[in-house]
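Record filed below.
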Amino acid sequence: MASQDRSNGNCNSSSNMDINDSISRKSEWVRLNVGGTTFLTTRTTLGRDQKSFLYRLVQEAADLNTDKDTDGAFLIDRDPSYFGPVLNFLRHGKLVMNKDLAEEGVLEEAEFYNITELIKVVKERITERDAKQNQTFLKNVYRVMQCSGQELTQMVSTIPDGWKFEQLINIGSHYNYGTEDHAEFLFVVSKECPTLLNGSDEPSDRAKVLQLKGTRI
């Protein structure tokens, strides 16, 4: 009988442990209703940053007087599309976001939830993005001028600083008895000018490209 009682005692103890484990696992999961969209995650995930609002939400819900919906999910009046990147960052420590989302939107949510590391990461990404958009590169700008054979020497000697000779094109003569002195040429020079990568700010010389063709100096 004693053996049987001990056996029953062990069974009851095991059963109680299973129930406690089940309750513990169940309480680990948390539902959040963010702007009408439900997210299911764990207290461990939400508690990654102990200074964040989400940590306080799962630790001090009663003190925060947080409302819940009919399914028991915590109600948060924020944009759900931007909450996804926030939650994923807490899960695996990386910022992953769709192309149609703006970094500034994620930053606003990170600041609202007070997730320090995410704020830092998003600000760094914004800085890198802006630097890339404002990156400049050198592009050749060409200027074409017409001159006679007599003016050719002067043309060569008066090339402005920064410009270099590219090509001399003989376009013939305007005189029937034309000689080399009366021959006409197109004198082509080029210059490297910085241009914004996104093309929003063209250099002033850009507007002059090929506009001087046919103009005598």
User: Anything to note?
Assistant: The helical segments are 2-28, 43-46, 53-59, 61-64, 80-92, 103-113, 116-133, 152-157. Residues 136-208 form a domain with the Alpha-Beta Plaits fold (CATH 3.30.70.2000). The CA atoms of residues 47 and 165 lie 67 Å apart. The chain is about 40% helix and 25% strand.
